[in-house]
Please model this.
Amino acid sequence: MLTAHLVAGAASFADIDSSEFVLLGEFRGQAVFAVGLSGETPQIGGEPVEFFDLRMIAGALPPDEAGLLAYARAMIHWRDTHRFCGRCGSPTVAIDSGHVLRCSNEVCKLQQFPRTDPAIIVLITDGERALLGRQASWPAGRYSTIAGFVEPGESLEDAVVREVREETGVIVDAVDYHSSQPWPFPSSLMLGFTAHASTTEILRMDDELEDARWWTREEIAHGAVALPITHSISFRLVEDWYNSDARRPLREEPGVRMWQLPRR
Model:
């Protein structure tokens, strides 16, 4: 899903059904709405518009703008994937400024609300090394922290222990909360943790990761691994660990290598 943040008059969107708009609130003194546009390169008001993947540009935006676009993206995805009632299959209609989808069947009237899926993301260390993994679809050299969705009836801490064990075979203890980040790709809330490894042997238990390995600060500083983009919670987890026992901050290391996201 591509994203644009536009300041435009009502005439620019005159051809769009008003029920498709979602009120996001007030931003910098103006009412703000989100709306999904169809087509590979949509046109707005006859003027060409350049679109970007939000993951590419979020780090270059002011935090409030990035948050607004994340909010908009998540709401549009929710609307697109809940156009029919999950109980009776009838079309849904938007109410409450687009924040509720109600079944059009007068017998059913089931209401659906935006959802957020909790996911844990964790940096595991044995003190001197950090455990990072990579998926097979990623470019060579790209690694990140371990992550996965929280299962029903599971605490966040239990999810950390389970995901790390399932993906790497490593047993962790001393699980500590670090920070969080909304991740609307499509509708997650990333809950960041750090954890200490009580075992260090890597035994991949499933096919979720192509590879997982331990990395020292020296290897990271010299670009042996490509780290996640700086505005991601994954990078912050690695950065805080690195800076806790390094001669200079991670971002000042000249040899550090970062992910390069493709343009669309």
About this structure: Residues 2-81 form one domain.
